[in-house]
Amino acid sequence: EAPRWIFLAALVYAPWAYGSTREWAVTGLSILIGVVMMLWMVGCLLRRAWPQVPPVLAIATILLAAQGWFLVGNAKFDYDPATLEFNELNPLLPWAPGSLHRSLSLKNMTQLSAMLFSLCFVCETARQAVWRKRLLLTLALTGVSLVLLGLTQRLTNATAIFWGPEEMGQSFFATYRYHSNAGAF
User: Fold this and answer.
1) Is the distance from CB of 89 to CB of 75 less than 8 angstroms?
2) Which pLDDT score is estimated for 173?
3) In this predicted model, which residue has the larger pLDDT, 117 or 182?
4) Strand partners, 79
5) Are 34 and 28 a contacting pair, CB within 8 Å?
6) Torsion angle in degrees (nearest 10) through CA of 100, 106, 110, 113
């Protein structure tokens, strides 16, 4: 059950850590999801069972991840911030498509893979009624807590998140820089 509890913690962490928009917050979320993934896979190995993911989702996830990782592995260029120019690379298959910015694509594919993994993990977790209720309750309580923080900030005319040092502008809400992002959550 450990990966499921850690995933619930990640659901609370993600929006409260500045909406996981800061580099440190993304790194923290990636670490949490990585721990969940490792524990889930170890649990599957110990049970000697495949993850219970719908076949269409499993195939789509594998194909999407394979395509993205191929593009990263077959990168044509990488950007060098020191010289402000793109350096040509030797791709595995020069005639095939590849990324134009290997290091950024690697970072993005790592995050996309974590999201795809999370989708598969939630599908398996939601198969059990008790965990489905826990997932929904965690999402609802986290959302309500963000709304309460945002409304408190509006009522007090706060210029930023109460504990944050940075100016957030006029359109921030709760822990998000832009109110629409909070609304989307």
Assistant:
1) yes
2) 78
3) 117
4) 86
5) no
6) 40
